[in-house]
Amino acid sequence: MSSAVAMEATRRRQRLSSNWGVSETTEEPAGQWGRAWEVDWFSLSAVILLLCTAPFLVFFFVMVCDQYQCSVSQPLVELYSGEATLRSIWEKAPSFTWTAAQIYTVWVSFQVVLYMCVPDITHKFLPGYAGGVQDGARTPAGLINKYEINGLQSWLITHALWYANAQYFHWFSPTIIFDNWIPLLWCTNILGYVVSTFAFVKAYLFPTNAEDCKFTGNVFYNYMMGIEFNPRIGKWFDFKLFFNGRPGIVAWTLINLSYAAKQQELYGYVTNSMILVNVLQAIYVLDFFWNEAWYLKTIDICHDHFGWYLGWGDCVWLPFLYTLQGLYLVYNPVQLSTAHAAAVLLLGLVGYYVFRSTNHQKDLFRRTEGKCSVWGKKPTFIECAYRSGDGGLHHSKLMTSGFWGVARHLNYTGDLMGSLAYCAACGFGHIHPYFYIVYMTILLVHRCVRDEHRCSSKYGKDWKRYTDAVPYRLLPGIF
């Protein structure tokens, strides 16, 4: 489909939706919930700033470990004093290698094969696991996509092969990821930019569903935040599902295992802090894949379009900055006291309990259409109505019971508790590993605002009723 047809579909949706207001208030017209249609100067400035600085920020946090034992301040002091220059720092960094390119090509290709060619069978023998073909959420244009959910199976196969290699086959060293870490950074950047640029061009030339495209008229915003809602190649290769979950999140636990192997190689032992980071982050990763079908109903799939933000972010930002704690512990092995380790473990597990229980309550409520028990009681809710871009009137229920009656995003609160636990496992010697909790706080607070703006546009006055019933976002009584 040509770009003219795609943009005409966008304009047609704008004209149609202008007559579909749920009420006569000033809420955004129905059918326009989702990513922004227009860009203000503040948003545009933020987009350009991120496009220009995010790649260098990733390089900085990886480089300071390679050259400065993970000290964030030392390179800045040396630059200020003239002891170092940007050029000297750059020249010390390992460059692109064909070995790293081969490793990454094999890795991504293997994940594509697992995603596309190995239908899920784990749901047939794992009670409670929802795998195989699943329906996604309704898109703004009214479309419901189908997905092949096989992330848990891919994770299990990948890690079984990793274990078999480490114990029996010895095809490659368990430290292979760490040993090629910065060269792999260049490879992931190449893929991130290629995928993002391809998705950008595809939206103009042959979009998967033109009715779900959004053209803001600003090339920078379109490139970063994406135009297509669910770009696909063929029937099943969905860009958002693949790149959000694979190859980055499958790799997350392998990266941590490689860090642990390197620590063993360098020092002859693995610290309890490294074990904690591996265990707590593995719980999060396994939770993601166990609930991959539920993930189809979250903001990443239901709201975000696929652009540089997801394409480059999933290829580069996620695997390199979400694993900073393990990287730090390779260069700075920290053996925690029993009390400190126990406190970190408790914080991480309580955070996970809040995160998972909150999401479970919502999923249970959605699956049973409110005909369930939450905290021993029948859940209360607010009935909402909204229209999709095809003109259809739909209804939804917003739960006001359980954790969802305590705060509107208590799952994010649990996520932040877990994030803090990862960082606290590294002790308090450097601020480097604490970048993650700072980033996650900014991300999730911003996501709260984005999600609530979307819901306000989608549900109108019904959303106001909901926020009156549940007044706090993350911290009851505070925020």
Note the gap between the termini.
46 Å
Which stretches of 5+ consecutive residues score pLDDT under 50? 1-31
Largest sheet: 2 strands, antiparallel
Report Rg.
23 Å
- What is the helix/strand order? HHHHHEEHHHHEEHHHHHHHHEEHHHH
Category by helix and strand content: mainly alpha
Q: How much strand content do the residues show?
A: 5-15%
The strands making up the biggest β-sheet line up spatially as 1-2
In which range does the helix fraction lie? 55-70%
Give the overall form. Answer: globular
What's the helix count? Answer: 21
- Please tell me the overall pLDDT: 88
Would you count the extended β strands for me?
A: 6
Keywords:
single chain, two-stranded antiparallel sheet, disordered N terminus, 7-dehydrocholesterol reductase activity, 479 residues, two-stranded antiparallel ribbon, cholesterol biosynthesis, steroid metabolism, lipid metabolism, cholesterol metabolism, 6% strand, 21 helices, mainly alpha
